[in-house]
Amino acid sequence: MSTASAFADRGSKEQIETGSAFAPKFDEKGLIPAIATDFDSGEVLMQAWMNAEALAKTIEIGEAVYWSRSRQELWHKGATSGHTQIVKELRTDCDQDSIWLRVEQKGGAACHVGYRSCFYRRIPVGAQAAGDAELEVTESEKAYDPAAVYGKKSH
Amino acid sequence: MSTASAFADRGSKEQIETGSAFAPKFDEKGLIPAIATDFDSGEVLMQAWMNAEALAKTIEIGEAVYWSRSRQELWHKGATSGHTQIVKELRTDCDQDSIWLRVEQKGGAACHVGYRSCFYRRIPVGAQAAGDAELEVTESEKAYDPAAVYGKKSH
């Protein structure tokens, strides 16, 4: 059940864009980008990847399951930290090659670094910034202490 | 200026996660995922891709410039439709392999199909839905008529 065959075959461009058949497109590595936003604030919490099994599992259990590219294994987000993501709504885009998860983030933080969102740094925009951008941290404090959750060595 | 060398070299994991040097990671095709959300509503408008040149150009002009994988060319979003995206804030994530653009969407719509967001369909979640998901359209109406903007054949 948790294979690519769990989903419909890709049809014509019109079927993909306007039809009701869910026919996600995985890349040559079998992955599709997945974007998790906070259901209440709309903040982008993280961007990760799913394979067909992770996507099928996410739909089945209603919690975010990704594919860890570094560990090459299914990654039920929060299994270690308790910071699971309850899927309040799941969407796909016009060409069905991207997934958007609107989630309730348990534990208040998605990022292993300790911030609410993985996107905790701003890239300055403007002509003068193009060559030599210095990132600016957007958060005033971390939501939790990674060392307390993961041990001294954060994963 | 609009090449990969416009950005810092990748450093250690700690430097990448906590440093202020912007050292984006492009994949083996030279691309990085880019997520555009509406600055006011937080809605995810689209997910596209940037190469180093598109990213440098986005930073320089403050409007979203992507890399079109289908056309294999730089894609200044809105150049044809007038639906440009003014970048109000640009962020990167912990491992600097994803870009988040918070934009003001000109023309009220990001999607070539005519909807505000490309993510106009919901995937039902739950055990009973896993095998046979029927997509549900989330929008009550299109924001514009693609045929009027792009001509009879939408791109």
Question: What labels would you give this structure?
Answer:
PRib_AMP_CycHydrolase_dom (chains A, B); 26% strand; alpha+beta; amino-acid biosynthesis (chains A, B); EC 3.5.4.19 (chains A, B); two-stranded antiparallel ribbon; 8 strands; globular; Ubiquitin-like (UB roll); 4-stranded mixed beta sheet; 155 residues; homodimer
Characterise this structure.
The structure is a homodimer of 155-residue chains. The first copy, chain A, is 14% helix and 26% strand. The first copy, chain A, has a domain of 83 residues: Roll (Ubiquitin-like (UB roll)), CATH 3.10.20.810. A 4-stranded mixed β-sheet of chain A has the order 2-1-6-5. Chain A contains 3 helices and 8 strands. Chain A is of the alpha+beta class and 155 residues long. At the A-B interface, strand 1, strand 2, helix 2, strand 5 and strand 7 of A face strand 1, strand 2, helix 2, strand 5 and strand 7 of B. Strand 7 of chain A pairs antiparallel with strand 5 of chain B. Chains A, B: Its EC number is 3.5.4.19. Chains A, B: This is Phosphoribosyl-AMP cyclohydrolase. Chains A, B: It comes from Stratiformator vulcanicus. Chains A, B: It catalyses: 1-(5-phospho-beta-D-ribosyl)-ATP + H2O = 1-(5-phospho-beta-D-ribosyl)-5'-AMP + diphosphate + H(+); 1-(5-phospho-beta-D-ribosyl)-5'-AMP + H2O = 1-(5-phospho-beta-D-ribosyl)-5-[(5-phospho-beta-D-ribosylamino)methylideneamino]imidazole-4-carboxamide. Chains A, B: It is found in: Cytoplasm.
